[in-house]
Amino acid sequence: MKFRSIIPAGLASVLLVLGIFSAPQLLAQTDKQHNAKQSSHYEGDDHDHTHAPNQAASTVAATQSQHDSHPDAGISLSALQMSVANIKVSTLTPQTFYRTIYAPGEVKANGYTSYVVSPRTESVVISRHATLGEHVVKGQKLVTLFSESVAQAQADYLIAATEWQRVKHLGKKTISDSEMVKAKTAFNAAYGRLIAFGMTKRAIKEITQTTRQQSHNQDINLGQYTLIAQRAGAVLKDDFTQGQRVAAGDTVMLLADESSLWVEAKVSPSKKFQLSVDTPVEVVFDNQRYQGKVIQEAHTIDPITRTRIIRLAVANLDDSLHSGMFVDVNFKFATLTPVMAVPESTLARSADGDWTVFVQDHPGEFNAVEVKLGRSLGQLREISGVKAGAQVAVQGAFFIASEIAKGGFDPHNH
What we know:
Elements: H1 9-18, H2 23-39, H3 52-69, E1 74-76, H4 79-84, E2 88-91, E3 98-108, E4 115-117, E5 123-128, E6 135-136, E7 141-146, H5 148-170, H6 177-196, H7 201-213, E8 224-228, E9 233-237, E10 245-246, E11 253-256, E12 260-267, E13 281-285, E14 288-301, E15 308-315, E16 326-334, E17 341-343, E18 348-349, E19 355-362, E20 365-370, E21 372-377, E22 380-384, E23 391-395, H8 397-406
Helix pairs in contact: 5-6
């Protein structure tokens, strides 16, 4: 018996039980049904069965050929669309770019232009003449102090000065050479001692003049002396109060010329790069950029931060940087050979996840071209896969990608 109809699975079980079909016959009939289903993929009602395998092979070959060709996704935009989307096109040319190495930094006072104001003998603060943050000029009074040692030195100077004036007035005809040398030596020693205590020549001269002008019943303020600014700058420290006793060498005030500051960049020891005084360095604070110059490079690791300190000199002509501020430091290193790079915003992902840029072949016509990414060059990214001279959309790439996505175009025809 020969059946041309399809035998359902449930009916096959019944037939097997009834003995109409043996097990081998039932398996052969099932295989025949399976082959008939497969042949239905290649033939229609009016197609010759002998052409079905050839048609299937042609279909597979065409699909494979389309997949291998990888046509680029494209779109045409009008001039109005490009204007509204603010699309800008630039010509790619190989250039020398700078790669950036970042490091945190801190602004420090310039140790070469700073000046520590301190007494040279134990003293008591009488009054201050400058306050914290004030900009002072060279020679301006800063603080007046009193010292017993200075009082004794001033008294000795007045005695020596009076004796020296008497000897000079009498002359060599009356005074022997030895007495004149003795008087002059005592005067110079007393004068030098006052200089060593921090008194200026002008202050010493004023003591002598005041002594001559005052009458016998007026007291002289011996022991008082005033420290003055040895250079112009800002008062960065004044940690003292009036009446306070300070020891010799204690810092009373700290002056610094903030027109030139230091920035100490803290670089991880794992970052290896060669620095020179000509290495371009950019210091950034609050979106303001300053050019720095490498002046020192530490060869030891900071025991606290475990970083390597690189000291920079930064011009601060607008007085916007101050000691203690934290800044960003970018070291720039030029590429050895010219490369092509685009802004990060130029790059877009294709449907299969590859990076692409949009190349304009004709005005308003953009095609997505796959590229390979290279080094990060600041706000730019090195790319390869695009010919030099190509017109690339450097602004508005997101809009172009969105328009292509809305069109449902798959660059690989998946």
